Sequence to fold (172 residues):
Amino acid sequence: MKALRQWSNLLFAITFIGAGMGASVAWGQGACEPFTVYNDLDGRVVEFIDSGSQGASVGDMRIGYMPLLDETGAKVGHHRWTLSVLDPDLDESSGRPSHRLVTEVLVFDEGEIFFMAIPTSARPPQDTSRPSVRSFEGAVIGGTGPFAFARGTVTRTFKEDTASFALNIRCE
Fold:
């Protein structure tokens, strides 16, 4: 169990350290003002880590990456996340969701924005072919560069195959 905990901590650290590596296109949005960015699911890469017993169990994780786009479809950065299963009891037939903790970072050339949420999902975490969490509201918990000390909310929604992140942030 200790080795598993160390592995999970390492993956979490890699997610946030790796997030700092390279958005390739500069983006000129005003720092710490409300704005929206988008993900195109075609660029989505997700790995599932079965941490406990086989099948859905507490501590199972999904680690992922997607490009970030502006409203014109131009790449402005990337999105990295770690999703951890908190409550593996999932009953797809009744629609009883399981709870997950997501820690996410939006990476731009000039800085990063960090947020967390506890969404529910009626999809098994092992199925990485599609998002297991569609929409949620989360808490912006910080950032770097012009987003240092960012606070506020992020609302993630889906329309067809595109996810949007509406950020209502301030930096103080």
Notes: Helices lie at 2-19. The CA atoms of residues 57 and 88 lie 5 Å apart. The two ends are 40 Å apart (CA to CA). Residues 1-28 have pLDDT under 50 and may be disordered.
